[in-house]
Design a protein that fits this description.
rod-shaped, about 90% helix, mainly alpha, 2 helices
């Protein structure tokens, strides 16, 4: 299945890098939000 996808989409590596970068930013943003929520709950 991966071979077929590579033949269909020659830009798969670029798309994969962009997806990893987006996932990294989204994950970091979620982690910061989670830490903020935990901190606000512990203060109360």
């Amino acid at each position: 299945m991966t071979k077929v996808n590579d033949i269909r989409n020659p830009n798969k590596k670029a798309n994969h890098k962009a997806f990893v970068w987006f996932a990294f930013l989204f994950g970091a943003r979620f982690a910061v939000l989670q830490v903020y929520l935990i901190g606000s709950i512990s203060i109360q």
